[in-house]
Amino acid sequence: MNTHNDITQLVSLSSSIVTPQSPPVELDLSTFLYQAMDVSKIIDVKSWAKYFDEIPVDPYIKDGYRYKSIAWFRIKHQKVAAIDAINEHINMVNELSGMSDAQSVKYLSSSKPVWCSEETGYCCWNLPQYVMQQSIKYNPVHGDMRREYPRINNKITDSNDFHKLLTLYASFFGWSDAVLLVQFQRVDCYTDRIGLPAVEGFHQDGNRHVGMLVVDRDNVANDSGVSQYVMDNNGKKTNELIFNEMIPAGQLIFWNDKRVWHYGTEIKVADTTKNGGRGVRDIIILSAKTPPANMPMGPVAEQFRQW
Ligand SMILES: [Fe+2]
Predict the structure, then answer these.
(1) 268 Cα: distance to centroid of ligand 1 (angstroms)
(2) Residue 190 confidence (pLDDT)
């Protein structure tokens, strides 16, 4: 399989310019709303579905229909100087997590990256298991609350396919240096209970852009779990749907979180006689953060302090 050409082809849907030899030229976000693409030919998305079975229930959703694991990364292009504020922020949260300077430095851009993509020049550092601490400005349901989640299985995060996904996200937008939050999220439903992919309704998350990969839709009705966007108007939501489609498994969609508000309609069981009347929708959410934007990283919870 020719990985190089495949990723290049998908990145060519964007106006970014990314090569290993020179600093990337970022996608012009003033003209970008969203772009969907089929990644099932370059990433064996189906093989990830089984890992969603092991994700524990999200304790912060009281009705218990959501499951979540997360991981943090730093993705920087090899030809750009590090953004100092990113190193400072990582160092500060590490210190608050009880790390020594010697331990903390392993997570900074002065240390050797865990992997680099030869085709694009992007390099990646795995970051500690920070808690999510989102500003209340962006999430009225969960704002500012500390949310601890377990890490995504290393079998996935250490795999070539996963590295391709992160490389594709970075290359599509062509950022120089950013912290990346990856969330694996399952929502389930039963014959007598729907599942809500977006508890807070139409919203923005305070990112510049977001990616969502649908890994699996198992026994979920086709007209449920539909992705919808409306335009932003100076910080206010408008009403007209500019996107209203069911995104099938294997499809990745990128959108401009500043210009559109997003929502996922409730999920419903397709066949009540299958899987004990249960349906699941499994997705991966990718969001890159560059200061001074929202950097929702809180100190690592006690149980995950392994360094
Ligand atoms: Fe969201």
Answers:
(1) 20
(2) 97
Q: What is the DSSP letter of 55?
A: S
State pTM to two decimals. Answer: 0.95
CA dist 129 and 145 (Å) reads 16
CA of 171 to the centre of ligand 1 (A): 22
Cβ burial of 93 (10 Å; 0-12, 13-18, 19+) is buried
Burial class (CB in 10 A: 0-12, 13-18, 19+), 241: middle
**285, two tokens:** 């959410």
pLDDT of residue 295: 86
* Inter-residue contact 126 to 181 (CB < 8 Å): no
Q: In which band, very low, low, confident or very high, does the pLDDT at 293 lie, cut at 50, 70 and 90? A: confident
Cis peptide before 292 (omega within 30 of 0): yes
- Beta carbons within 8 Å of 256's beta carbon, 6+ residues apart: 29, 32, 33, 34, 208, 209
Distance from the Cα of residue 7 to its chain's centroid: 18
Contact 26/83 with Cβ under 8 angstroms? no
Residues forming beta bridges with residue 67, ordered by sequence position: 57, 186
Distance 204 CA to ligand 1 centre (A): 6
Question: How far is Cα 157 from Cα 163, in angstroms, rounded to an integer?
Answer: 7
User: pLDDT at residue 134 above 90?
Assistant: no
Tokens 């120089």 — which residue?
Answer: 176
How far is the centre of ligand 1, averaged over its atoms, from the C-alpha of 198 (Å)? Answer: 7
Say if CB 262 and CB 209 are below 8 A apart.
Answer: no
- What average pLDDT score do residues 207-226 get? 97
The single residue listed with the structure tokens 């995950």 is: 304
pLDDT by residue (tens digit) across 231-281?
A: 999 999 999 999 999 999 999 999 999 999 999 999 999 999 999 999 999
pLDDT over 90 at 143, yes or no: no
